[in-house]
Input
Amino acid sequence: MKKIILFLISSLFLLGACKSNISKDMIPNRITESNKLNAFFQKTYDEDVAESPMQQTRLGIKTEDYGKWDDISEKNRDKKLKINKERLAFLEDSINVDLLDKTTLLSYKLAKENLQNDISDFKYRLHNYPLNQMFGWHSSIPAFLINMHKISNISDAEACISRLQKTTILFSQVEDELKLRAEKGIMPPKFVFDLVINDCENILSGSPFNKTTNDNLLIEDFKNKINALAINSHQKTSLTQEANDALLKHVKPAYTSLIALLKTQKEKATTEIGAWKLPGGKAFYNAALQRTTTTNMTSDEIHELGLSEVQRIHNDMRNIMNTVGFKGDLQAFFTFMKDSEQFYYPNTPEGKKAYLAEAASLIETMKSRLDELFITKPRADIEVKAVEAFREKSAGKAFYQRGTPDGSRPGIFYANLYDMKSMPTYQMEALAYHEGIPGHHMQLSIAQEMDNLPMFRKFAYYTAYSEGWGLYTELLPKEIGMYSDPYSNFGRLAMELWRACRLVVDTGIHDKKWTRTQAISFYIENTPNAKLDAVKMVERHIVMPSQATAYKIGMNKILNLRTDAKTRLKDKFDIREFHEVVLSNGLVPLNVLEDLVDEWIVSKLD
Output
């Protein structure tokens, strides 16, 4: 049956590569080396997708696996390590890199580096917290079923019920993961447990879990989806009953058991927050910084860069403060921006609806200006949604979820409207650009819509490139006249300042042993953001070591490359061509991006 899955995947994503079996003795004169390698990439990509029912769903593929979850066991990780070693050996032993075309040579280098990194980092495979307030199986499963699992017919509905029934199996593996880490002394700090337990308990609210007129979010979503089907009322009633039974007999016991384990582990947890506390913590954090930033910057260098950027942005903010005629120092201006009601929608359903509508309008306006800055535009559409109630209390401020390659599911810009005082209108413009257009939606959609890239590059992810682009695109609209309101420009600077502070705080927590209070205070003292923002950000740093350093380092690199291109090309510089180079190769490490831009510059000078 796996062969059928591979055939379906290949049919959807055919790149024109030869699909014959790959062998080390393949005769070079019968197939070019580039086609040989691209066939290998397609084959291995198909194999990986065939092993991941959840990735199939994300890609809009429906097979017999539509009712299953992924295997997240340690045994499966060992299997993946063996496969990676075999694939690396093939690249090293069976490919003549001198015969590869330019695009395929880059794919070779990226694939080889990815495999080498995965193999090298296997020793750190448990150095994470699979359940935390930012993400985890406890919250991603309901979000996956609601946002990813489409129901177009009875078979799809039965697959959803099957996934509900298999939650106990998946959560048994999740519990094994937590126990394995605890044995090695890898546990999140105590406060994380309270947030995760609260999210789990929220998921178990509503009918059929308790006697109430309000449906649980999962059964509500299921009913909405089957009610849209052209089936009779008896079939709808029968499917709903099966879903209810699955929730009571499988989902509830899975969450109840998980909550019990979390409460037990919480008693053993400490309040220590940095990666330094983990086994081999210093080496792990240094490796994490290298992977996240795709640079060789040290923790101290990142920390100092953050401090200098904070000072620079503070000076730019003082200029805006003078422009609007504010009397007082920068801290007083921060207080004014935090406390003034003019910068906030009311914390009501109407206020939240208005926020979403304005954010969508900002994206639509930016769409009309894209030709001034870009050659290639995304085909996929984008929607703006509020973070769902069950996870809004602990989720981040905003985030993006990519759509399917075929456009059947649009990209989604999620805004967290749990506390409207954390979502000031003066930051709305920059937030919409970052998560939507020309930020993540444009970047990720264009990557997966590129016809000349192998599939693994279409879905590659390098945090410094991705988030660096997001932050860069907060600034970019200003250069074509957006941010006409000085307060909105202040909001843009406030968000850049926030990312600069991240460089200081992340390294402070994980390398310099800052306390949680010390880290929160740095944000409160240096930014205009609400205290809740500072608390959530520090809690994010704690459970995602190094991740937050990517934004500012990536943005600075893109700006430096653009400045270099302008200096060298002078009147030959074209911003649209520069962006085409940055976006048309998929997501890449920053050093590779530098090489691509340099090649473009040289070609323009010839």
User: Anything to note?
Assistant: The longest helix spans residues 233-266.
